[in-house]
């Protein structure tokens, strides 16, 4: 885990060196101040008073310099921590963007993001505390210790004799704190997931009157978090109490021992006092060191989770080919096999071809593998076996951006940002002009709606377009696809969430506006794809039947049954 943190420190070597120099200066100032104190006591005991005014002036100057050193040191470490946190955040976001799709799909969206934010802010504290309280304070303590040893090694040894014993004890405390922290985080994640669920299923929860049951489940989650946190707090309180003891005991024992030495004449009074002052300086960082270790220990759990996330598998960037000859056929799949876990096959030896301008549809029961196939075509998954050619070239040889650029997708849910209509449409093509946007919106049947709004294309949509109907949202997706101007458009059940009127409108739009496009559709409702060139019926990852609607009806197989189960008997000739 330290390697993970040092990776970020190593990015800012210059600032680290500056922080180290400031820390050395800080410890040097501490020693110089104690030396001054010694001189003042010596002079006072000798009955000289004339030098005091000069010494006070010097001490004031020194204190001023010291304040500047401490300020600069804190500023440099604070800046370092901000920079490192920014860099970590960038890495995490970049990782998520490049993460393998199946790995990302396995995460619960809300919990995943909450965990990320929490972990990043924990690690941000880790960056600062490890640097400031452990390394820099550690250097100060070391420098002062060397000076103390040089002044009186016996006295120093007596005051430090505790350290090995307390380190062993701390080690045990810290291990159990880490266990409790892990347990608390686990329970906290469960609570966040449950709370997230409440927001996502708000309507269902209300309609089924589930408030009381959900509230009681949430209360159980809260209780578990409380219990785990309480156990952690108890250990932490014990460690802190122990830490205070460490701060007091060495000074106490050392002063008794040193007092004896002064009485015997083995130690001068000024050395005794300056020794105690320096010991006071280092006992605070030493005891803080333990509470910082507790904090680091907690943040270590978060750093470990982030490290694992950053090591998660990334999707392939594809091959080196960055341009295509747009030849025919557009897509050729030969004996494609795919499985999410390497055990359960989801797609079995699939083969089909799609020519320019053709419209093909994949139909079949829930879980038959239609969406998986679309994601594979989009290059989100790689097949474990078989060949996938795009315009005659193996997809694995093509740059992944080139592959994705060949497709537009209109899925069940259209994501809309809380931004202007123009910006939302530009999502399809960042370089589109206003005229192109208006043409696409017009072709997608959105013109009259947008023009009826007082601010037209500058109207800001609500988050995820909640103030739009399902049909309007799908028209936005079609307008985006038109702006993207790719040859192939994939429709993944675009009408599944629509009422019959909107469904008819969108189906007609696809037939008219997109008539020149090559289309792949995933459909539950067979009526939306009846006039397609070919329909493939999928069953448990196999292409069971294929042909035009009429051909498939003629086979009187699974498609025939499915069609009649949706439309009733006597509807063969549509
Ligand atoms: N990310 C995933 N990890 C593991 N298994 C998955 C994942 N996504 C889908 N599956 C499984 O793969 C199979 C095919 O799912 P897929 O979503 O492709 O089917 P589908 O035909 O599109 O279903 P539907 O019509 O209900 O959307 C199902 O058994 C599903 O449980």
TrEMBL record:
Membrane topology value: Multi-pass membrane protein
Protein's UniProt name: ABC transporter ATP-binding protein
Domain ABC transporter, first and last residues per copy: 331-565
Compartments, as annotated in UniProt: Cell membrane
Entry keyword annotation includes Plastid: no
Domain named ABC transmembrane type-1: residues: 17-298
Source organism (scientific name): Lacrimispora defluvii
Molecular-function GO terms, alphabetical: ATP binding
Transmembrane residue ranges: 50-71, 130-150, 156-178, 241-263, 275-296
Major location category of this protein: membrane
Stored InterPro entries: AAA+_ATPase, ABC1_TM_dom, ABC1_TM_sf, ABC_transporter-like_ATP-bd, ABC_transporter-like_CS, P-loop_NTPase, Type_1_exporter
């Amino acid at each position: 885990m330290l390697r993970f943190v040092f990776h970020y420190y190593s990015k800012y070597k210059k600032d680290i060196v500056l922080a180290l120099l400031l820390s050395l200066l800080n410890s040097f100032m501490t020693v110089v101040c104690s030396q001054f104190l010694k001189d003042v006591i010596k002079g006072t005991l000798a009955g000289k008073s004339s030098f005091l005014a000069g010494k006070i002036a010097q001490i004031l100057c020194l204190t001023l310099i010291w304040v500047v050193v401490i300020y600069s040191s804190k500023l440099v470490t604070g800046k370092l921590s901000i920079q490192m946190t920014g860099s970590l955040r960038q890495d995490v976001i970049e990782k998520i963007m490049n993460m393998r799709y199946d790995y990302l799909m396995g995460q619960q969206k809300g919990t995943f993001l909450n965990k990320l934010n929490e972990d990043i802010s924990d690690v941000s504290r880790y960056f600062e505390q490890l640097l400031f309280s452990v390394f820099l304070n550690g250097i100060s303590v070391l420098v002062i210790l060397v000076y103390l040893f040089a002044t009186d090694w016996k006295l120093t040894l007596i005051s430090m004799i505790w350290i090995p014993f307390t380190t062993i004890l701390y080690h045990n405390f810290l291990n159990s704190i880490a266990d409790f922290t892990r347990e608390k985080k686990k329970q906290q994640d469960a609570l966040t997931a449950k709370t997230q669920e409440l927001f996502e299923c708000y309507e269902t929860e209300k309609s089924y009157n589930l408030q009381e049951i959900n509230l009681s489940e949430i209360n159980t989650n809260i209780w578990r978090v409380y219990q785990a946190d309480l156990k952690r707090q108890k250990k932490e309180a014990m460690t802190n109490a122990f830490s205070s003891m460490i701060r007091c005991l060495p000074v106490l024992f050392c002063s008794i021992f040193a007092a004896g030495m002064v009485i015997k004449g083995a130690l001068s009074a000024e050395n005794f006092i300056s020794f105690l002052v320096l010991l006071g300086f280092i006992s605070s960082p030493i005891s803080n060191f333990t509470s910082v270790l507790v904090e680091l220990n907690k943040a270590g759990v978060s750093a470990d989770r982030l490290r694992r996330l950053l090591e998660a598998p990334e999707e392939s960037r594809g091959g080196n080919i960055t341009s295509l000859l747009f030849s025919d056929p557009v897509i050729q799949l030969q004996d494609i096999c795919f499985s999410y876990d390497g055990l359960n096959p989801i797609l079995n030896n699939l083969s089909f071809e799609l020519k320019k301008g053709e419209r093909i549809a994949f139909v079949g029961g829930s879980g038959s593998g239609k969406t998986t196939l679309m994601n594979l075509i989009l290059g989100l998954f790689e097949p474990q076996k078989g060949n996938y050619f795009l315009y005659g070239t193996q997809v694995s040889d093509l740059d992944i951006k080139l592959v994705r650029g060949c497709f537009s997708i209109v899925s069940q849910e259209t994501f809309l940002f809380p931004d202007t209509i123009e910006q939302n449409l530009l999502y399809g093509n960042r370089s589109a002009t206003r005229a192109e946007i208006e043409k696409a919106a017009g072709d997608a049947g959105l013109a009259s709606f947008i023009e009826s709004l007082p601010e037209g294309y500058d109207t800001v949509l609500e988050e995820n377009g909640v103030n739009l109907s399902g049909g309007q949202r799908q028209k936005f997706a079609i307008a985006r696809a038109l702006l993207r101007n790719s040859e192939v458009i994939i429709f993944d059940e675009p009408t599944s969430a629509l009422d019959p009127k909107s469904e008819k409108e969108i189906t007609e739009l696809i037939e008219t506006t997109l008539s020149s496009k090559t289309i792949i559709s995933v459909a539950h409702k067979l009526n939306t794809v009846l006039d397609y060139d070919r329909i493939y019926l999928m069953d448990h990852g196999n292409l069971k039947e294929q042909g035009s609607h009429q051909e498939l009806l003629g086979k009187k197989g699974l498609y025939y049954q499915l069609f009649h189960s949706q439309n009733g008997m006597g509807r063969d000739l549509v």
